[in-house]
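Data card: per-record layout.
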Amino acid sequence: MCGRFALSTPMHELAKRVEAEPLSDLTPFEPSWNVAPQTFIPVATETGVHGETSVPRHFRLMQWGFRPSWSKPSQREPINARSETMHEKPMFRRAAAARRGFVPADGWFEWMTTPQGKVPWYHHRMDGRVALMAVLWETWTSSEQHIESCALLTQAANDDCKEVHNRMPVLLDAHDVEAWLASGKLPNQPAAGVIDRYPVSRDVNSVNVNHAGLVKPLPGLFNQAYGE
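The structure for this 228-residue chain is written out next.
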């Protein structure tokens, strides 16, 4: 699973990179090195608010925590969906058919179980590019609220990531984006040598801690103890 990620690259720069309209100035997204579930995150999509198809690619803020249109609000709204079963699960299959998008991230965190407890590791692309993580999203409406929410798609971890966790986000390269948004076609698992990762401070465990130091590697001696 992916339970936290970092996104500090300016939104206008991101929008230009992925050829999308940026967020409205009325809905800014502040840089964050500790994006947590239940917060609102920028999702790029080509589907409109009311399900319109083939609208220009654009960003909207959506709650990270998937809430189907027929569901009641819950504290256990899923933040991830398995890409292998998204068309089978009643919670996700409607979104998989019609409401797809992606979230940019500088990198993401996974936790390794060790004799000293769970240790967070930061993962990022080796080439320095922003990671584009595939998502499903849905609309939920009540008499008082209208919420768009999303879940990150996951897949089996590749050789770069599997020693830390057995799952990883579904990553899109630039040439994969159009096929995913238009028809739901996902790319193959990334080849080895695409993702770098290293252990970071447990400070990221707290949603109240948010600074650039969260994505900095721990001192070398600790890294060597876990195979780095």
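Known properties of this structure: DSSP finds four helices and 13 strands in the chain. Helices lie at 11-17, 93-98, 177-183, 220-225.

See the next section for split statistics.
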